[in-house]
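User: Predict the full complex structure for these chains.
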Amino acid sequence: MPAPLAPLTLEIVVLLLGIVLLGFESFSKGGDRGWMARWSVAILSVVFAWSFFTTGDTGVDPSHAFYCADPLALFFKRIALLTTIIVMVISLEFRPVLEKFIPGIQPGSGTGEFFALPVFTCAGLMFMASAVDFLLIFVALELVTISFYVLVAYMRRQNASLEAGVKYLILGALSTGFLVYGITWIFGLTGETNLARITQVLPSLLAEGGRLHGSESALLFALMLLLIALGFKVAAAPLQFWVPDVYQGAPTPVTAFLSVGSKAAGFIVLARVLQTVVFLPSIAPKVLSVLGLLAVLTLLYGNLAALPQDNLKRMLAYSSIGHAGYLLVAFASIDPAAGNLYRTQTAIGFYLFGYLLMTLLSFLVMTVVSRHSRGDDIVHFNGLSKRSPFLAFGMLIAMLSLAGIPFTAGFYGKLLVFSTAIARQNFLLVSVGIITVAAGFYFYLKVVSAMYWKEPTEDQPVTASGLTKFTVAALCTAIFYFGIFPQSLLSMLPSDKAAPVAVSPAPHK
Amino acid sequence: MQDYLPILLQVVVAVVFAVSTLVISVVLGKAARRNAMKDSAYECGMLPMGEAQPRFSVKFYLVAMLFILFDIEVVFMYPWAVVYRDFLVEHGSSIFWSMLGFVAVLTVGYVYAVFKGALDWSK
Amino acid sequence: MSPLLFWIFAALMLVFGIGVIINRNPVASALSLVASFLCLAALFVGLNAYFIAVIQVLVYAGAVMVLFLFIIMLLDLREEQRRRFNLLAVAGGALVSLGFVAELVLVLRKFTLGQKPFAPIAQVDDVRQIGMTLFSTHNLPLQVTGVLILVATIGVVVLSKRDLK
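Assistant: Here is the predicted structure of the three-chain assembly.
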């Protein structure tokens, strides 16, 4: 067993990988860059395995706590790594489409950065998972967002990709503005950017006759700004309007990355920020009711607007809004009396992991099929079971899990989320959730019926590379494994029994 | 507030100069006889026609954007240079390695931009 | 900073800010933005934040504005000048910003700190303080910022180089 590693080495290795890839890209001229993706998959898999040997509480910068490595952070780092690995596999299948839409001198040129940038994004997501100071949260979030701006607009010769890039850039910049303004307010109130120290300062600020009169409304205002910004990032209604166009226009691997990686990072930041305020008795009810409203709106919008969609990519965009709604249910059901967020953290951790498996599986199959059928409408999936029974089965599993059929990871995730709402006796959220699950069955099974009960329009078989087939098989297995044995995943997440890993607040200078 | 007096004086001089130049040219120019030919820009042989604001090539944008990025890098170097000596005494050599890491990452970006031909004007 | 100077620069900043939005000629908008940035720099000077004031002038009023002008030159200006306002969008935007301002005013009225001037910070060497903090305790965010600039460099080259090799 190797010696325990400081968690920061994970990020450093990922960053070095990105820099090395970029160096190779600088000096190479034209030609196939697929090896970059394959090497990234290999090295990131090693880092993923390595993450199980890191110790949770190694103080990396004890003088000033920006970075923590509690079980939750490590779990979300693994989500980031796994997402990037599968996105690389999707990118490999996506290469022919990519080469067609970028102005390279020869086939393959200009695609290297498409494989290097996700590695940097991954590092940014990993920093976000560990960030416990608004400064690091902001810088890491910008690292993620800026690389996404580039990736979304990557196919410069396709107008849809450019349009998506511009829309994402403008709305992303606006939401960043809200985030920074919110952080400024919090800093102005408390004089701190570190979340742990903000938690210490706030109660005395809010106390009757405290230092500042009227801090409560100022704090609520700051939280509103932060919620607006994070709502954009996780695509919560009514801040979701950019999602369908951006997801449909972006290159498919980037859409997959956005819908899983960016969402996971947004939710962990939301969890960290809420942890500082949600146990304050005067703030909690207001914040939780706002979160509940967001959850209801997001659930209804995402699942109902997905019903009439004919394009699978766009449908998955609405579905990703819907899933953000289920995750928000877990946030709206935080128990302010509990003193910790473990229940919510466990629910969102498991849910996001299951969501990762099933969403990336559906995007992977979609990339392969749409390359052969030249389109990603649901019609293009007609009769897929005859053209490639294996891929059709993979898509079937993904859709069943997204819909929430028992014995899949998607089902258990929903169960955990609803159990938090039931524990708080929030039956409005539960009933809205169940209605939207029913709506979900309709549009997810529409894809299944197209694959299995419609006649194919073309009859040449759909082929995929060995790596893709392996990934599809692995993802299908994981969906069932974690659906049947959820305990193996839950043990990695924080629970009530485990001692809380405290972020050691440094003495203020 | 006294410190800003020279700046204020400079602003006043600049404004007075600009305004007086404009006023004088208008006053003196009015006196002369004008016609359309006389008001047109001086140009041999052909009539000056076309847009007042010609459209630029995207190359300018590429260079300007790269300039800003390295400009931002310099923003961090300025306080670094100011405190370097004192920092070595107070906290040790970590300041050197810190900046070295920062610059090393950005050098990768510079090498990348150069070898990709981003600074190559003719291509 | 004397309150009079604050109000003068704040008012000028807002006037030029409005100028950015209502000017039909994009070049005039961009120049209004420069003026607005300069007033903001003056406010920073008034707070004894000289370093930020200098950066504001160098990076924003200087470099970023050059970039803006280049982009404006890339565009077809006449189309922008011909474009009609979408009244519904203007009304909606005005409503949202008015709501935001109203909320801000409500919060500030309740908030006593908002009515009490901050005690002036004693004469400090702000560049020195920034340098000391940045390179001792704030090293991690600094390095991540380096990576951020690197990613932006890649983005610029990838998205605007004519023929990628």
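Chain B has one domain: 2-115.
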